[in-house]
Amino acid sequence: MWKLKHLRHLNLSHIRLDMPKHSDRYSLPKLLTLWGLSVDDKIPVKNGLDQLCHLREAGITFCLNNCKDLLNWISGLTSLQSLRLRSKNDVGHPSHFGGKPLSLSSLSKLSHLNLLGKLPKLPENLPQGLKVLTLSLSKLTEDPMPILGKLRQLNVLRLLSDSYMGKKMVCPQGGFEELRVLKLWNLKNLEEWNMEERSMEKLKEINIRCCNKLMSIPSGLMKQRSLKELVITNMHEEFIQTIKRLMRNRDVILTHKDYIFTPLPWEHANHTSDGVHSMASHINV
Question: What SUPFAM superfamilies does its record include (predicted)?
Fold first, then answer.
């Protein structure tokens, strides 16, 4: 495979790549897409992966004691437009990204970013061209909204399971200028969500799932004509009734769903259902 001089797109299934000894150090010179790559301590990044320098799309799962070489290689991929990074431990459960904040400022062309794993801190120098951002299991303790609100081209923001562990979240004044879709899933500690003036003025869709302590959404959203759809899943009855009251006389599609999810291997769940049950009600208010 290393001899395929004109290969542009390579999709793997969690496979490790190791360059054979005595091979051309500049193999796969035209490779643009590399998905499904698995990296661990058995095959160092410096064995040849770091010679792939023209990638535009990359999906990497890694299990490393020290991810310095991996992150240094990624920071040098200045043509990268889409990046998915997943950290796991030796039994396949989500792990951490190391002790230092990620440095992604050099990736000026990056528009899609998906990170799964514990972050020591949300990077303050995220590429300003980001359009779609997904965070999962980041375990952030500081409110990410003041930083994320500065991303002027962000269209879609997904804060998924345990990406933020705090109780309060505030969307900054004038922030999220281009945001259209916001998903808040499994933020188990979130109790209060506030929004300052002129924030999220173009927001069209909100999707809230399993945020069991959240009592309401910002009242400022009720005044925004851009909002067209609100999807709430597995939320408590008090929240549902509050939303229905706030949305009264608004031309917004409100969808209420209840699911029983099969827990993932690393999740501590009280139920052991191995099926998925769904119940949805669609209400125009």
Answer: L domain-like
Token representation of residue 235: 């939320």
pLDDT tens profile 164-209: 999 999 999 999 999 999 999 999 999 999 999 999 999 999 999 9
Judgement on whether residues 54 and 104 belong to the same structural domain of the protein: yes
**pLDDT tens per residue across span 116-153:** 999 989 988 899 999 999 999 999 999 999 999 999 99
Please say whether the beta carbons of 32 and 55 come within 8 A. Answer: yes
Amino acid at position 76, single letter: G
Confidence at residue 268, expressed as pLDDT on a 0 to 100 scale = 56
Q: In what order do the strands lie in the sheet with 181-185?
A: 9-15, 33-40, 57-63, 82-87, 112-116, 132-136, 156-159, 181-185, 205-209, 229-233, 253-260, 277-284
Establish if 281 belongs to a structural domain: no
Of residues 87, 174, 179, the one with CA closest to residue 138: 87
Cα-Cα-Cα-Cα torsion 84, 179, 208, 284, nearest 10 degrees, comes to -140
Total count of domains within the chain:
2
Instruction: Give whole-number Cα distances, 3 to 34, 35, 59, 73, 132, in Å.
Output: 16, 19, 22, 21, 34
253-260 and 277-284: which strand pairing? antiparallel
Other Cβ atoms within 10 Å of 98 Cβ, number: 19
Same structural domain for residues 36 and 86? yes
Distance in angstroms (rounded) separating the CA atoms of residues 228 and 243: 14
Domain co-membership, 158 together with 242: yes
Output the CA angle 116-126-142, nearest 5 degrees.
65
pLDDT above 90 as % of the chain: 57
